[in-house]
Amino acid sequence: MGIDISHAQTVEVGYDEFCGALAARDLQPLWKIAKQLMPDVPIPTTQPWLWKWDDVLPLAKRAGELITLERGGDRRVLALANPGLRGLPFTSTTLWAAFQYLGPHESAPAHRHTPNAIRFVLTGSGVYTTVNGDACDMEPGDLILTPNWNWHDHNNLGDQPMVWFDGLDLPLLTTLESIFFENHPQQLQQVEGHNRSEQGFAGVGLRELGASSPPAHSPLLRYRWAETERTLEVLHQASGNPLSSLEFVNPLTGGPAVSTFACEMHRLYPGTRTPSVRKTGSSVYVVFQGSGRSVINGVRFDWGPGDSFVAPSWARVDHEASERADLFAISDRPVLNALHLFREETLAEHQEVSGTFVPLKGVEISADQS
Amino acid sequence: MGIDISHAQTVEVGYDEFCGALAARDLQPLWKIAKQLMPDVPIPTTQPWLWKWDDVLPLAKRAGELITLERGGDRRVLALANPGLRGLPFTSTTLWAAFQYLGPHESAPAHRHTPNAIRFVLTGSGVYTTVNGDACDMEPGDLILTPNWNWHDHNNLGDQPMVWFDGLDLPLLTTLESIFFENHPQQLQQVEGHNRSEQGFAGVGLRELGASSPPAHSPLLRYRWAETERTLEVLHQASGNPLSSLEFVNPLTGGPAVSTFACEMHRLYPGTRTPSVRKTGSSVYVVFQGSGRSVINGVRFDWGPGDSFVAPSWARVDHEASERADLFAISDRPVLNALHLFREETLAEHQEVSGTFVPLKGVEISADQS
Amino acid sequence: MGIDISHAQTVEVGYDEFCGALAARDLQPLWKIAKQLMPDVPIPTTQPWLWKWDDVLPLAKRAGELITLERGGDRRVLALANPGLRGLPFTSTTLWAAFQYLGPHESAPAHRHTPNAIRFVLTGSGVYTTVNGDACDMEPGDLILTPNWNWHDHNNLGDQPMVWFDGLDLPLLTTLESIFFENHPQQLQQVEGHNRSEQGFAGVGLRELGASSPPAHSPLLRYRWAETERTLEVLHQASGNPLSSLEFVNPLTGGPAVSTFACEMHRLYPGTRTPSVRKTGSSVYVVFQGSGRSVINGVRFDWGPGDSFVAPSWARVDHEASERADLFAISDRPVLNALHLFREETLAEHQEVSGTFVPLKGVEISADQS
Amino acid sequence: MGIDISHAQTVEVGYDEFCGALAARDLQPLWKIAKQLMPDVPIPTTQPWLWKWDDVLPLAKRAGELITLERGGDRRVLALANPGLRGLPFTSTTLWAAFQYLGPHESAPAHRHTPNAIRFVLTGSGVYTTVNGDACDMEPGDLILTPNWNWHDHNNLGDQPMVWFDGLDLPLLTTLESIFFENHPQQLQQVEGHNRSEQGFAGVGLRELGASSPPAHSPLLRYRWAETERTLEVLHQASGNPLSSLEFVNPLTGGPAVSTFACEMHRLYPGTRTPSVRKTGSSVYVVFQGSGRSVINGVRFDWGPGDSFVAPSWARVDHEASERADLFAISDRPVLNALHLFREETLAEHQEVSGTFVPLKGVEISADQS
User: Which of A52, A318, C103, D50 has its CA 20 to 30 A from that of D369?
Assistant: First the structure.
């Protein structure tokens, strides 16, 4: 039974030639790289990093002047490219975050793709995203889902630009080699109704009799800021803790809003530093309002409205607000949970702070008054 | 509500300077790379590739002479490094396959790690792998699990070397930045019993009353070849098809044996070419016995016992045996299923064959009779 | 193999003596009763029936004068006893419904039991039910859960009596021989907080990060009428249908609020008769507001506020409001779903009405002005 | 808000007249019956009982002479009627057990019904049950499923009678008012294959790739005695315990073979009395081989091959074999688990034995040598 190797030959070569023979045959010897492949704890390539709103916003506006939204590009998006990822336009190894800028009276054309996407609105008004015919209004603080293979286009009817934070699973789906993309036959979808997805979900724990869920994502496509804020406030009043955290979930199943990452909101109250926590998987935060600082692996990151930062897997992280602050975040925890890989631990003591993050690597560019 | 941008500035720079300003701030413009990031269908970096047993075996034997098994390296493993992955020692973007060589009277020391691993035995006898104290015998055609965070060591009591095929989720866990590793305090574990995991599973559909499953993997750690072969034969007699395919599953749940990839066995009967199929996710095959050829994206790969090959995501694949052949395979389908990303389609016609794969890129090395 | 019956004897008796011999040995011959045991479609013993509020309320008030709430009885409850169930105090074969009357400044002592119970408030104010230390306020239209093995007591701080509708799975648990009951060591529980269960659920699709669900029931114990009504209204505006139906669910899982029956709210708009539907399993309705009529198996049941009625399994049922009406209902559908026994069909045409239900079987009792 | 009761009247009647008024209106006062409805622990109506093979077999044979198998009766079945259930032909409140006798060259016609049924063969050979076209051979010790709404007929090609033990959920489905029944258009189904359901399940933990499960029951319809016995033996060798217990499960999900009750096999080794256990839900046992005794709530039940007995919910139960014994059992545990009602406890000491069960209530009937 099994392959007969009784007549197998060896090759009488020295170690160097042997290594060369391996390389020539697309073989790699594990024993040379075992510790890099299998470190004792995760050694992320994702770097802790922060992008300043004061850097992003002028460039986003300039992009609004320089770039049009046409088939091919489709979107005016500035991606947060993690310097640890060797030039890839990804924010962590699994998550992709970006700022998207939609000028007054602009529309971004309709398409669909297998990557799940969410939009968290930072500024602007009078915009709606049409998802499979349902025009979902977008106001600051709202979370809008454009899940896997759902048609979507964005439309700004107002006189002001809108900027939102984009969260996608693009790096993970690149690794999974599972990206499909399709343009809609029309430039924009026919609108069949407004905020329809909310109609079945007017009350907590109340479900239309007979309602069922699409297998892969929440049927609720818009989570309004007013609901989010009220929930944060109630959680705070109930616990008295300096940190209230909630997850946006599928109301029909309690599972994550999209299958590949979690959407979270964290409200920090000033005066207390949260415990240092480390967990597997990365998170990308964007500050909706307020200011403060986070310590990631001993480095202090100061942040204010519109700033965005990323914490890699197994990094020590704590936060402290200097004024009450609301941070939206995406995290790949659902993937780790599904694969039984999630670990989390709270450190007994706060980590020491050994430095402060200074993002800008190059020269300053001058910004004229517009 | 929202961030006030009424006083926001733009930057009066031309397009080139604008692009430079983005790069200096770790921002990347999506519109330049949209089609690469979001192709219409998956464009894998994983290349279809094949590793010849006749290349691997002499080098594995030579490694047996040159390399000892000690703490640090721990294993004598030749990894199948896909040329598409720019030097990474991975077989696809999610899967890692390797040949492991354990010489007579050798032991590979005890450790554990979060990557799930499986071993499919190609040749040899008299070996056991101890998994959390349970000594699992290894014979040709057997599948042995050493799942996430289970202690394991390998022991060859016999006079012949053993070679097995290793399958791990190492690339995926590298992307998920979730690898933990620990050496066992002893060189080898204490053996508490032999083939104990099989004791609860002596009959199909029969479960010890009150038995429960570890959350992340099958409690059955050894799948014997005799059972596998009998099942393949029964499936063939029932269907009459030229291809019988089975999956190794957790007998307590029906789910995959480990959470991050599927273990499969395919028996091909000569005389018929299977339909061309493409599906999301990659698969790595190793030939246990028999010979034939597979066509992957129009290129013909000829294979015989011990040869291993990889099919990337969304590649067209069909097989044809020249004599009855058994192919063991691993596939990342469970991950795609869990995230609602699995797609599969069967092509109406066979793909055309435009070339034949020739693996060896460099010079021949001479092998002396040992 | 098997039991040896080669030497078995027969008994030389005639048919009558044979039947007697069976009876004497606690055996019953199936062939005589096959059609009763296995009818072509369900032949419920549960009868369609209706209880008039005008009958119930005076008796409930009188019970308030005659009966005190003490250990032993514990509750002042008038159970809806279905005449088809041969004297059993059950409303259907699986469901128990009752009216509970709690006088001003009264308390019903603390206990717990395995039957799940829900309370739907019909009239009164200033009452709370303490569930495991959480004082849940009760106002008209509110639904309060006192699930399996949760301590609960009821307290009326006001000057008015409260009457609510009780729904329990008592008949099913009697059949399952699974009823446990325990008195609390104190007459009333210590109140540890007010409406605490609502704190985690202030917004739809928003979950406290890390929240988990008790396995058997919703963590939300109070569903306020204002939320229920708003949801009914939104559903109606969305669909335009004369019937809006919702289910009260566990917000963490989307499953039923308690494991053994569903809690539903139906809003009927006047002017349209709903289609005739039949489904497996029974439902008990109580009218919260409005009036109308339901046709059950051809018999018309007229109803107004406070009336309660039961529809048996596989009965044809349709409804028509004469003024906008809200009906609360409990149904054993979750049990049938869990056991893969649920069937439902909508009839192509309305059923004919062959009669009108007249509940009162006996003499009228006179009611003085109180 | 709520029903206005400000003008509600009371009824000035004494307690007796009040009770009469309730009864006249189909209302029952809980306070009079609270302890019966809600006992501290289950008070089963199911009685512990035993049916002797020596009583059953001669009557079954006589039934074979007196009763033919025709449309209407369809089956020659002697049901085990529990004396506690007031004449109902049920063995417990949820389970129905019976002995079915199929004479040489007889067939029982094809029908289907929503009650799940299983057949455990006690004696005979050369019989098959056709389930949806699949002819499943029946040999002693085999378990055959004829699940919810699957067509089935029984056929004896041999010269000997077959007797099997029938297990059904008939009492539970009667309570759930969910029984449907249909005769097949033909007297017997067309046989499309033999033991086909076994073809996909030739090895433990091996599943045909792409196989899926019917939602409500196991796709494997025959569990052969040889597999069952081998598994019992392996479990015993592994544990050394005097009791080995297994459950027959759906190999694709690990769940119960049918949704409404568990099928179990218990092997007892002589010389040791098992611990006393009590659990919610009832079990019906039939002795396949061997002899011994069980103590149920202090009463000793002696049993040998072919005897059958029932243990009610929450009864104390222990067993002791006088020679190695195999007991097949059905239990409603899956229902209790699904509804979160299962409880089980092992008593620290053996129960005292206060009496011995003597089943026969009436006169002896004489059995002639056949």
Answer: D50
